[in-house]
Design a protein that fits this description.
- This protein is mainly beta.
- The chain contains 1 helix and 10 strands; from the N terminus they run E-E-E-H-E-E-E-E-E-E-E.
- The chain has a 7-stranded mixed beta sheet. It has a 3-stranded antiparallel beta sheet with strand order 1-2-5, with no helix packed on it.
- The termini are far apart.
Length: about 130
């Protein structure tokens, strides 16, 4: 069982069962939706997710035909996306899950669309705490 929440903790949930590998997407649409260089998604069956609190805080937005993105209307945290072509599957945002997360990155996709300014951690200093 995994637990998760949005930033304000208004939306809380659990995910039952094992998590599949995390998918990292570099496409421009995901970058804009996440406000960062990538989106980290865990595709889970909708029936695996139990929304504990905050259903009334969840706002849906159809970002393109057949694709809905859901976020917390209080803090703006992206929660998941869902495609009509994959009924019953939520692409849950991995960053919402409380540690420890029992899943690893499975693959990166749309890497050719990577932001030009995102070199990755190998090319930049790494700090253990904020600066």
């Amino acid at each position: 069982m995994h637990h998760g929440s949005c930033l304000c903790q208004g939306v809380t949930f659990t995910v039952s069962g094992e998590l599949p590998p995390i998918q990292v997407c570099y496409c421009s649409q995901c970058r804009r939706a996440q406000g960062g260089p990538v989106a980290t998604n865990v595709p889970v069956a909708e029936v695996q997710v139990s929304w504990l609190t905050g259903l009334e805080l969840m706002q849906r937005y159809e970002s393109s035909p057949g694709k809905v993105r859901c976020f917390c209307r209080v803090c703006g945290s992206p929660l998941f996306s869902q495609r009509s072509s994959l009924p019953g599957v939520l692409r849950l945002r991995a960053g919402l899950l409380a540690e420890p997360v029992k899943a690893a990155v499975g693959f990166h996709f749309y890497h050719d669309s990577k932001a030009s300014w995102w070199p990755g951690p190998i090319d930049a200093p790494i700090y253990p705490v904020g600066q």
